[in-house]
Amino acid sequence: MEKKIVVVGSINMDIVISAGRLPKMGETILGERVTYLPGGKGANQAVAMARLGGDVQMVGAVGNDEFGRSLLAQLKANGVGTEFVKTVDGVQTGIANIYSVEHDNCITVVPGANFAVTPDQVDGRIEQAIANADVLVTQLEIPLPMVAHVLKLAKQHGVTTILNPAPAQNLPIELLELVDYMTPNETEFEAMAGHAFSSRDQLKILMGKWQSAYNQTLLVTLGEEGCAYLEDGILKMILPPKVEVVDTTGAGDSFNGALAVGLTNSWPITDLVSFAVNVSAKAVTKFGAQEGMPFLDEL
Ligand code: RIB
What we know:
- This protein is an alpha/beta fold.
- The chain has helices at residues 41-51, 66-77, 124-132, 144-156, 173-176, 186-193, 200-214, 251-264, 269-283; strands at 4-8, 12-18, 33-39, 55-63, 81-88, 94-101, 104-110, 135-139, 160-164, 181-182, 217-218, 220-221, 227-231, 234-238.
- It has a single domain, classed as 3-Layer(aba) Sandwich (UDP-N-acetylmuramoyl-L-alanine:D-glutamate ligase).
- Strand 8, helix 4 and strand 9 form a beta-alpha-beta unit.
- Helix 1 (41-51) packs across helix 8 (251-264) and helix 8 (251-264) runs antiparallel to helix 9 (269-283).
- 47% of the residues are buried.
- The structure holds alpha-D-ribofuranose (RIB).
- Alpha-D-ribofuranose (RIB) binds at residues 10, 12, 14, 39-41, 44, 96, 107, 109, 141, 249-250, 252-253, 289.
């Protein structure tokens, strides 16, 4: 039987400004180039999964504009099912304004049509797709009521859930209890836990508290340090291979995409995390969030 994944999330056009450094407040600097690239955490994760052999349906929204049409075409070209992506009149496709400097970036997202991804979009066909899925994946670039709604449906139907809590925001306990795998990066985990950490011991304590409070598997991604998780109360770290980093945009998305594909194969946690860390290390070797998503035969 085919293993299916449903991604409920954002679809953005990434407008990437590459520059030597960030401007200071009130300052004008000259950049090197501007690039228009497909993005959005939901779409990036869906593309990552499809390239790794996942059978993926995307639930989301774009505006009735050129960006929306080209982003839909990009999803289809990558083999992502777009039947449940609606086109909304009178609102722009989501935009991410990305400042890309050497080895890092910062992003402002203007959600546009992504904020039209609301529970009333979930008709019988979408509910059926969720019920038939092995894994449901969502993030926080769409309205929270939709995130809660689809997580609840997934749990009702016994579907494994992944929440990539990005961008970070406060989440109600009722929502947290619907999550099987939580995948914050370091900054997001500090915001969730309400504490910064500066050592592995502190990280372990915070992760232990979180896991026992919400009964979920926590995978904290740490950039060049890979990913941390707890196994029988012991902190495990999976380190990535050394690579030439070109662009870190979408690194977390490739991790989540790989994690979902691994879960459809029922891999044990060490294999899941190793696979996701390796996929992520490959993804950062190319420019652009979706450009870098590796195919299985590249790994
Ligand atoms: O995770 C990277 C993504 O965040 C970018 O593609 C951008 O669209 C923002 O959503």
